[in-house]
Each structure stands twice: as structure tokens, then as C-alpha cells.
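Model the whole thing, not chain by chain.
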Amino acid sequence: MARLRKWRIAIFMAVGVFLAGLIMFVALTCYLASGAEMVPVLMYHELVDSSEKESRYSLSVEKFRDHLKYLKSAGYSPITDGDLLFARNGGSSLPFKPVIITFDDGSSDHATLAMNSLAEQGFRAVFFIITERIGQPNFLNRDQLRTMHNAGMSIQSHGHTHRRLDRMASDKLADDLRLSMEALTNLLATNAVSLCVPGGWYNEDVLNSARTTGYRLVFTSDIGMNRIYGSNPILKRLEIRGGTDSGGFKRALSPMGIAFNALIRQIKLVGHMLRGNS
Ligand SMILES: [Zn+2]
């Protein structure tokens, strides 16, 4: 009998999660399709010179160039995090269909494969740097970062050590965020304004520490679109994985694709919590 009761509870919970997910999916799709003033943020990692080297975090430069061509043909205008802050502060309005292209981790291919592809379209992007790794093998060095900055790219923080910020003691958290800010300020003679949280993990402590260190925007791995105006510092992104072709890219940007991927991530996070990994 106890076993039967357990099964009933499990089925009840599964149906509940399914219905909640369905409601969320429909509501989010309608909201995203409503045409409110929003900006998508694309999340890329490493670029590689051949599709044979692709993995979740490695996309072929050929496919990346196709993504950029699609953005141009569909009328998107890439902006930076600085442009978003400027617009939010009443500085100027943003172009029609703004999009923010971001790269995580600061691998050395960004100075060549990413920069060349962006230059072909006259696009700008935001690069999140693990500041402890600047100049290490396979990572961007100081000269490359300065060159990218001077070419109009936004160079921002991905933490100093790339460790999970939400699991750090408060003094270690503050140190990590401060050291990263200082490294970028010393390198580029301008303060970083954005923090991209390693692994997408954050909590209230991380948000508070980021704010007190001087970061004004926090880029996450939460999936969704972002309101252009308002004061929410937390930005959601759309992960573009290795292997994503033009069709997959269009789907990832569509209201239904965003709602579907957001739902899958929520289900995964619930599973993660249920397994006891907070
Ligand atoms: Zn990362």
C-alpha cells in the first residue's frame, strides 16, 4: 500500500509540474510575441575553425558567420552593455531590433575568429574575461584585449577565478569581484560595468556584492528576453551551443523557441534542487 501511495504522489507531482510548465510556456510565448520593447542577449563561448571540433561550448566560425548574416538580414542591430545602460539613463534611444552578442571565458580565438567575423558585418560584441587567466595559454592576452577594446568591443568581467560565486564566503566573493574589476580597470583605463556570473550561478549575496563593487549589470544563464527600459540589473541570455546551424539559430531567437528552452532549463533546475545540489 505504501508503495502505491508513493506512486500516486509521484504521478500527481509529475502532472502538476507538466501543467505548470505548460501554463508557463504558453504565457511566456504570448508575452514574447506581444512586441514589448525587449532585447535578446546571445551567449557564445569558444569559436573553432572546423565543425569537426565542435562541442557544446565550441561553435564553428562558419556557423557563427551564418548567424551574423541572419541577424543583419533580419534587421537586428548589435549593441553593447554600455549602449543599454546609456539608453536606460535617457542618453539615447536604441536602434530598432537591438541584440547583444556576448562571449564567455576569453579564449584566444576571440581575438581572431570572433573579431574577423564581427568586422565583416560591422558588429560589436561584449567579451566576458576570466581576469586571472589573462595571458595564459589559449586565453586572450593584454595586447589583444586592448586592441579589441580600441576596436569598440566591450571587455567585461567573468569573475577573477571563474569559481562559483554563490558558494563563496562573503569576503572571498568580494575579493573575487574586486580583483576582476581592478584588473580590467588597470588594463583598459576604464571601469567594467558588467559581471557575467560563472556557470550562471548567483544568489542575493552575489547580486549585492556585484552592486557594491560597481558592476551595474549582471549577465546570467537564465533563459529569456530582457526589457530594454527599467532598472533590472539581471539579464537573461539565449545560449547558442556548438553545432547550432542557421535553422537552430532562428528557432533559438523565436518566441516559441525561447519559451521552450526556458521551460527545459526550469525543469533541469528543479531536478538539480531535488537531487540536493543547491
Ligand atoms: Zn564561463
